[in-house]
Design brief:
- It contains one helix and 17 strands.
- By secondary structure, the protein is mostly beta strands.
- It folds into two domains: 109 residues, Elongation Factor Tu (Ef-tu), domain 3 (Beta Barrel), CATH 2.40.30; 107 residues, Elongation Factor Tu (Ef-tu), domain 3.
- The strands form three sheets. Strands 1-2-6-4-3-7 form a six-stranded antiparallel β-barrel. The chain has a six-stranded antiparallel β-barrel with strand order 8-14-11-10-15-16.
């Protein structure tokens, strides 16, 4: 069940509310968010304490998968986190930015051929980021998943392939098997969806220390 997995909460928006502070808003995809939890935002790499969680102006003891929640965070400015960032529990498989990832991509609607170097925009959860098709590793049979060609030069409409992708800027994605809502994407180009994909593997960038707020340090000692 999604509630038993670690927290993944992609941000839809971040508000600055006078008298309260910074309030990120988004839908809980997996796990549970609770007041007092120390969350990490990826790929922003900011860690802080959740002061309160609310939905429809009601304070919640917990936000569950499917809930659209707002949560107040301490010592984080509205400039530090943004739409497309993902919040997770800092102590339970925290989210991290991906340096690259491999995906099974199906081209559904592209007028030409797609080759290495193609850099369309990916819509994955709430992130909207250009990603480069760095390597076409295998062309595969869509029905069986078996490889029909290694390192194809191009793929076209109707083809499926395993592709290594490199985001143009830090992006938080997950494998489809672990976190389905963060592991599928649409490829947008020419104002339409030209391909869809499922993420098979993620190379998490070693993000380094990042920012840990005083609130997070205090909460961590409790």
């Amino acid at each position: 069940r999604p509630a038993n997995k670690p927290l993944r909460l992609p941000l839809q928006d971040v508000y600055k509310i006078s008298g309260i502070g910074t309030v990120p808003v988004g839908r809980v995809e997996t796990g549970v968010i609770t007041p007092g939890m120390v969350v990490t935002f990826a790929p922003a790499n900011v860690t802080t304490e959740v002061k309160s969680v609310e939905m429809h102006h009601q304070q919640l003891k917990e936000g569950l998968p499917g809930d659209n929640v707002g949560f107040n965070v301490k010592n984080v400015s509205v400039k530090e986190v943004r739409r497309g960032n993902v919040a997770g529990d800092s102590k339970n498989d925290p989210p991290a930015g991906a340096a690259s990832f491999t995906a099974q991509v199906i081209v559904i609607n592209h007028p030409g051929q797609v080759g290495a170097g193609y850099a369309p925009v990916l819509d994955c959860h709430t992130a909207h980021i250009a990603c480069k098709f760095a390597e076409l590793q295998e062309k595969i049979d869509r029905r069986t998943g078996k490889s029909v060609e290694s390192n194809p030069k191009f793929i076209k409409s109707g083809d499926a392939a395993i592709v290594k992708m490199i985001p143009s800027k830090p992006m938080c994605v997950e494998t489809f098997t672990e976190y389905p809502p963060l592991g599928r994407f649409a490829v947008r180009d020419m104002r339409q969806t030209v391909a869809v994909g499922v993420i098979k593997g993620v190379d998490k960038s070693a993000a380094g220390a990042g920012k840990v707020t005083k609130a997070a340090q205090k909460a961590g000692k409790k």
